[in-house]
TrEMBL record:
<dbReference type="GO" id="GO:0005737">
    <property type="term" value="C:cytoplasm"/>
</dbReference>
<comment type="pathway">
    <text>Purine metabolism; IMP biosynthesis via salvage pathway; IMP from hypoxanthine: step 1/1.</text>
</comment>
<comment type="subunit">
    <text>Homodimer.</text>
</comment>
<dbReference type="InterPro" id="IPR029057">
    <property type="entry name" value="PRTase-like"/>
</dbReference>
<dbReference type="InterPro" id="IPR050118">
    <property type="entry name" value="Pur/Pyrimidine_PRTase"/>
</dbReference>
<protein>
    <recommendedName>
        <fullName>Hypoxanthine/guanine phosphoribosyltransferase</fullName>
        <ecNumber>2.4.2.8</ecNumber>
    </recommendedName>
</protein>
<comment type="function">
    <text>Catalyzes a salvage reaction resulting in the formation of IMP that is energically less costly than de novo synthesis.</text>
</comment>
<keyword id="KW-0963">Cytoplasm</keyword>
<comment type="similarity">
    <text>Belongs to the purine/pyrimidine phosphoribosyltransferase family. Archaeal HPRT subfamily.</text>
</comment>
<keyword id="KW-0660">Purine salvage</keyword>
<dbReference type="GO" id="GO:0004422">
    <property type="term" value="F:hypoxanthine phosphoribosyltransferase activity"/>
</dbReference>
<feature type="domain" description="Phosphoribosyltransferase">
    <location>
        <begin position="41"/>
        <end position="178"/>
    </location>
</feature>
<dbReference type="GO" id="GO:0006166">
    <property type="term" value="P:purine ribonucleoside salvage"/>
</dbReference>
<dbReference type="InterPro" id="IPR000836">
    <property type="entry name" value="PRTase_dom"/>
</dbReference>
<dbReference type="Pfam" id="PF00156">
    <property type="entry name" value="Pribosyltran"/>
</dbReference>
<keyword id="KW-0808">Transferase</keyword>
<dbReference type="GO" id="GO:0032264">
    <property type="term" value="P:IMP salvage"/>
</dbReference>
Length: 190
C-alpha cells in the first residue's frame, strides 16, 4: 500500500533547523523532484478514501497545490487554493494561521455557501492550519465531506480529532537526525 510514498519517505534527507530535524520530501517541499508516479498514487488513494461526490477541492498554498491539481484532473472537480496573499474580492474570508514555525494570514476565495468540499493538504504537524481553516469553511456555509492530509508528523491530527474533526492521513511518521520512520500507513494493519 502506498509503496511509492513509503519508499520516497525512507529516502528523505534531513536538515537540522535550530534543533528541529526537518525532513525534505517532494510532497512537502517540491524538492528535489516530484515524480508523476507519486502524485498518481496519492491522488488514487485520496479517491479511494473520499470518492468523487463533492463540488470542490480546497487546498492551501504552497504544497497543497500539486496534490489538488492531480486530484482535480482525475476527478474533474474544480479546486480553490487558500492563499497567503490578500485579493480583496467580494466574499474573501481572512483567517489567522499559526504553525510550529510561522504565523500569518490566510485568505479563502471561491468557496460558496452550500458547497460540499474535500480539503487536502501535504502535511499536518501542530494542526494549527486546519484548526483555523476548517471552522472558517464551515462558517462560510461549506459542508466539509472529508479532510485528507498525506503526511502526519506530531500530534496535530489527534488534536483535530479532539476538536471533532476527523483528519484522514496517509502516513504517520517520526523524524530524527537519522531519517524518517514510518509509524503507520493508511489501510495497513500495524
Ligand atoms: O499542522 P501545521 O503545524 O499547521 O502545519 C501544516 C502546514 O504547514 C505546511 O505549510 P507551510 O505553512 O509550511 O507552507 P508551505 O506549504 O508554503 O511550505 C503544510 O503545507 C501545512 O499547510
Ligand atoms: N517539509 C517538512 N514540513 C514539515 N512540517 C512540519 N515538520 C516538517 C518537516 O520536518 N518537513
Amino acid at each position: 500500500m502506498l509503496e511509492v510514498l513509503q519508499e520516497s519517505l525512507r529516502k528523505a534527507p534531513i536538515v537540522i533547523r535550530g534543533e528541529y530535524p526537518y525532513f525534505i520530501h517532494p510532497i512537502s517541499d517540491g524538492v528535489p523532484s516530484l515524480e508523476p508516479e507519486l502524485l498518481d498514487e496519492i491522488a488514487d488513494h485520496m479517491i479511494d478514501i473520499a470518492g468523487t461526490d463533492y463540488d470542490r477541492i480546497v487546498s492551501i498554498e504552497a504544497m497543497g497545490i500539486p496534490l489538488a491539481t492531480a486530484l482535480s484532473m482525475k476527478t474533474g472537480k474544480p479546486m480553490s487554493i487558500v492563499r497567503k496573499r490578500q485579493y480583496g474580492l467580494k466574499g474573501e474570508v481572512v483567517l489567522s494561521q499559526s504553525t510550529g514555525y510561522s504565523k500569518g494570514e490566510l485568505y479563502i476565495n471561491g468557496v460558496s455557501k452550500g458547497e460540499t468540499v474535500l480539503v487536502v493538504d501535504d502535511v499536518i504537524s501542530t494542526g494549527g492550519t486546519l484548526k483555523a481553516l476548517l471552522p472558517a469553511l464551515e462558517n462560510m456555509g461549506a459542508n466539509i465531506c472529508n479532510v485528507i492530509v498525506v503526511i502526519s508528523r506530531g500530534d496535530g491530527a489527534a488534536k483535530m480529532s479532539d476538536m471533532g474533526y476527523n483528519v484522514n492521513t496517509l502516513v504517520k511518521i517520526d523524524v530524527d537526525m537519522n531519517g524518517v520512520s514510518i509509524l503507520e500507513v493508511a489501510g495497513e494493519q500495524q
